Amino acid sequence: MKQYLHFQVVAATVIFLVFNACTKEADPNSPLYSQNDARRQIVQVVAASVATGFNSLFEETYTDSLQRTGFCRDFTHSALFMDDESGDVFIESLSGVSIANPFHPELEGLPSIENTDADGKKIVVEMIDIVESTGYGFLEYNFANPASGLVETKTTFVTMIPVADWYAGSGYYHTGDFPLLTATDVNKMVVKEAVTAFAKGLGAIFETQVTDSLQGVELMRTMLRHIRFFDNRSGYFYVIDFRGYNVVQPPDPSIQGTYEWDIQDSRGNYLVRELVETSQNGGGYYSYYWMDYSTQQEKLKTAYVEQIPGMDYLLGSGIYGVE
User: Fold this and answer.
1) What DSSP character marks residue 106?
2) What burial letters (b/e) apply to 208-222, b meaning 16+ CB within 10 Å?
3) pLDDT in tens, 57-92
């Protein structure tokens, strides 16, 4: 029991303090990366961010298992990512029961402990072993790809949701290595896919779980508060409403609720207006100068923003030092 309690503390520390960066800040002199490298980084960031956000909400808002289960299913069923929506996040219990399975909802609530891959490897048993021993990690196995109908190599990242004794996971099927990517390319892909997943998930939550705007704002602030990624913790999610108010700004909560429609960066860019316009036009990248909270220095930031479906909010995240 003491060992398990110690693990819970360690796992929580890993998720909130250490495991906040799966990729490095953009470095023009860094080596090139394969497509599989990029997908590996993406699923790690998305799953870790979901686990961190869920853990925060489960501590403060959703305190019983039925509430948590409903929230998980509503969020993950919509939070699909990658261009072909082949990316998802699943939730499992440490006892080997499926909590949320976006691609196979008929399996939710059923035991999964005996699930095996094409070679008979007990993949759920191994996932549980990973999160119970180290808090998070990758597992590689051979599994039928529903897109191709073929057995292919798959890599899945799993990470603990300590307060619930659950874990979150996300995986990808291996693809060709080319074209090769720079670190900047990979990081831009990471923020794009993470924003896409969270925007879709939050849109579903606003439809099913939120009864008024104040509740929705508090939910987003709680969920996004502790999420950080990249080695220097410079990655985070922010929310701006279409009237120009800052809704969620985790590194600097003091500016939440402030009116920013007319603010300009140091180069005269009306950044909030441009971010809103970009999100209203289907989402995309926009560059501006902003404080890098990890260094307390202003840097050029390239953000990816999308509208939260059904809401007059944009969700964004970005990387620093990229034209």
Assistant:
1) G
2) ebbeeeeebbebbbb
3) 999 999 999 999 999 999 999 999 999 999 999 999
- Closest to 257 measured CA to CA, from 215, 206, 300, 217: 217
- Whose tokens are 């499926």? That residue is 98
CA 105 – CA 131 distance, rounded (Å): 23
Give the closest residue to 112 by CA, choosing from 131, 94, 130, 129: 94
**pTM, entire model:** 0.91
Give the closest residue to 168 by CA, choosing from 40, 43, 70.
43
Closest residue by Cα to residue 82 from 42, 142, 139, 35: 42
**Residue 113: strand, helix, or coil:** coil
Judging by DSSP bridges, how do beta strands 90-93 and 246-248 pair with one another? Answer: unpaired
Let me know: does 157 contact 126? Beta carbons within 8 Å.
no
pLDDT in tens, 94-153: 999 999 999 999 999 999 999 999 999 999 999 999 999 999 999 999 999 988 889 999
Pairing of β 98-100 and β 136-144:
unpaired
Q: Which residues contact 292 (CB under 8 A, 6 or more apart)?
A: 234, 298, 299, 301, 320
Q: Are 153 and 140 in contact (CB under 8 A)?
A: yes
CB 255 within 8 A of CB 47: no
Q: How far apart are CA 195 and CA 201, in angstroms?
A: 10
The label of the residue with tokens 């110690």 reads 6
Amino acid at 169: G
Q: Which two tokens stand for residue 238?
A: 């922010």
Q: How far apart are CA 234 and CA 153, in angstroms?
A: 32
**Which domains does the chain carry?**
2-173 (3.30.450.20)
